[in-house]
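Lecture notes, part 5. Sequence design as translation. It can be helpful to think of inverse folding as translation between two languages: the language of shapes and the language of residues. The source text, in structure tokens, appears below.
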């Protein structure tokens, strides 16, 4: 394996991971382009030795994927989900996995994943206590309003 091919793979991974920390959902596609360039270098030996072609492949694949795939994948990867996807949890029981105190967000677990949660009152709900989901916070689609279940 050519050293530059390995560098393209490494650059792709760095770009994709950096997308987690930098908003905008654009760097991800340049990471995909870098990985595709690395794959082209592995598959076609003449590409592995020609840096101009590598740069051209990277630019073309990055820009094409950005233009054609960004809109399709941005909602999925940015954490935006449709309102009706969270509505199914209203009225369901959940388990607190991180303490909740009023509007200071904690976390709940339901259906195998965790979600942000807040309460309407200032009562503290501790980890491992059960709650019922009463609504979804309007300003944040991934935050639920919960109420402690009292026995």
């Amino acid at each position: 394996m050519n050293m530059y091919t390995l560098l393209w793979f490494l650059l792709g991974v760095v770009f994709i991971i950096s997308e987690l920390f930098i908003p905008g959902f654009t760097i991800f596609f340049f990471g995909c382009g870098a990985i595709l360039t690395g794959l082209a270098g592995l598959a076609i030996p003449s590409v592995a030795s020609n840096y101009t072609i590598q740069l051209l492949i990277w630019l073309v694949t990055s820009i094409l994927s950005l233009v054609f795939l960004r809109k399709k994948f941005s909602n999925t990867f940015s954490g935006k989900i449709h309102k009706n996807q969270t509505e199914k949890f209203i009225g369901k029981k959940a388990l607190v996995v991180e303490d909740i105190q009023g509007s200071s967000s904690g976390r709940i677990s339901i259906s195998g994943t965790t979600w942000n949660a807040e309460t309407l009152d200032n009562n503290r709900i501790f980890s491992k206590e059960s709650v019922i989901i009463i609504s979804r916070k309007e300003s944040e689609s991934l935050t639920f309003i919960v109420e402690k279940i009292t026995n």
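The translated text above is only one of many valid answers, since several sequences can fold into similar shapes. Residues 82 and 141 are 8 Å apart (CA to CA).
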